[in-house]
Write a structure and sequence with these properties.
Pseudouridylate synthase 1 homolog; nucleus; 13 strands; 28% helix; 12 helices; nine-stranded mixed beta sheet; Alpha-Beta Plaits; four-stranded antiparallel beta sheet; elongated
Length: 448
């Protein structure tokens, strides 16, 4: 009897469990779902979210922003370079602050400039000036240049702003850069000793030819691992393409003659141009043999003197390929209409500072005293002191990786880790192999 009673209870439990499964409207999920539908009549999407727009308590003014190219010039003598660097005065800091005060960028953009897609065309070192620096960032369609300039110090000036393509990057789209280096001509003549002799000196045609011959050694694609900091001779990124290095002109100011050297290259590394000038001066003055020019480009380590940064100026940033590609849809980045204003700024804020630094500050004269004692052989005692703040961030102004996928990179690394250089004059690509030789076969390859 007891067994039969137990067997009769099992079907009752089974019936109760089946009844719970069949009544799905009594589950907790279904109750919450039905309650939500009962509480609101607003339409919802498949995720149960309301399709109605939420009303913000505080209305926010939405400003339409587009990618712009901004041309500016500056005297960098009292600055720690172009690139933003916490704790020191930089050009970018003052520029972004002026843009924020003019309400062209937000406070968030100021604190994190990548929000506005900010990029500079070239990272100038401590004390280096620029006549035509270009930065790209997102700005409102209507921008008043005067509103920016009145919030900037006199040594920084914005010349113009132009609309560019949405994926324009002032650094990676730059096909070449031209720098000028202004120095007193007496530096090229070692026989001059007194200050009066140096002021009275005027460069001869023979000396000009000597300068031109030495500067021509830099032309072409070479490994500049000895002309920067912390680069190994086999580092592919040390390969740089120089399109030209010439003595452009001479002028007299404050009874002293000055020469302007122009170097045009695809990209430059930290201290590269200053070391190129320093080595050329050392050879011209007879402090070292002419053969050191070949040695500097070999695998050997050579300690090259670094010329003062006072005379170095970013003169022009070239966008030849970009202009050719978008000539029908966007303005050219040659900035020809701003040329008069740029010329005036150079002669009011850049050249006077360089001349004063040489005539009154004796910048080159002081450096020449150190040059006499310079040793070109590497040793622990001969390690050149480098300000660590100058090594923060980018170490050069080489192009970033281009993210728009249009094949516009000015410099590419092939699958073997070798560097392909683009020659701006004729659009050809010269690929440099590990031995430093140019492989022209790359010109026969089709674009991917």
């Amino acid at each position: 009897m007891d067994v039969a009673a137990i067997e009769n209870k099992e079907p009752e439990e089974s019936t109760e469990s089946h009844e719970i499964v069949r009544n799905k409207n009594m589950t907790r999920f279904k109750k919450r779902y039905m309650k939500r539908n009962w509480q609101t009549d607003t339409p919802t999407d498949e995720n149960g979210e309301s399709k109605q727009r939420k009303v913000c308590d505080k209305p926010v003014e939405r400003i339409k922003r587009k990618k712009m190219a901004l041309l500016l010039g500056y005297c960098g003598v009292d600055y720690y370079g172009m690139q933003r660097n916490p704790g020191v005065r930089t050009i970018e800091e003052d520029l972004l602050k002026a843009l924020m005060e003019a309400k062209y960028i937000t406070e968030d953009d100021f604190n994190n400039q990548q929000n506005a897609q900010f990029q500079r065309s070239s990272r100038t070192d401590k004390g280096v000036s620029a006549a035509r620096q270009v930065v790209s960032l997102k700005l409102p369609l209507e921008v008043d240049v005067a509103e920016i300039n009145k919030r900037l110090p006199d040594c920084i000036k914005v010349f113009g702003i132009k609309r560019v393509t949405n994926k324009f990057n002032s650094k990676s789209k730059c096909s070449a850069r031209t720098y000028s280096y202004t120095l007193p001509t007496y530096v090229l003549e070692p026989s001059l000793v007194t200050e009066e002799e140096r002021k009275q000196y005027r460069i001869t045609e023979e000396k000009k030819e000597q300068v031109t011959k030495i500067l021509s050694v830099y032309k072409g694609t070479k490994s500049y691992h000895n002309f920067t900091e912390k680069k190994h001779c086999q580092d592919p990124s040390a390969l740089r393409f120089m399109m030209g290095f010439t003595l452009d002109r001479v002028f007299v100011d404050s009874d002293m003659e000055f020469a302007v050297l122009l170097v045009k290259g695809q990209s430059f590394m930290l201290h590269q141009i200053r070391k190129m000038v320093g080595l050329a001066i050392a050879v011209l003055r007879g402090h070292t043999d002419h053969s050191i020019l070949d040695k500097a480009f070999s695998k050997e380590k050579v300690m090259i003197p670094t010329a003062p940064g006072l005379g170095l100026v970013l003169d022009t940033v070239h966008y030849d390929r970009y202009d050719a590609k978008f000539k029908d849809s966007h303005d050219s980045l040659t900035w020809s209409s701003e040329e008069e204003e740029i010329h005036k700024f150079k002669h009011e804020h850049i050249y006077p500072v360089i001349v004063k630094g040489e005539v009154e500050g004796h910048s080159m004269a002081t450096w020449l005293e150190k040059l006499r004692q310079h040793s070109y052989e590497p040793s622990e005692d001969n390690q050149e002191k480098v300000d660590e703040k100058e090594l923060v961030g980018d170490d050069d102004d080489d192009g970033d990786v281009d993210d728009d996928g249009d094949g516009d990179d000015d410099k590419n690394i092939n699958k073997n880790g070798e560097t392909a250089e683009v020659k701006a004059d004729d659009g050809k690509i010269e690929e440099v192999n590990k031995e430093g030789k140019i492989d022209d076969s790359v010109n026969n390859k089709t674009d991917q």
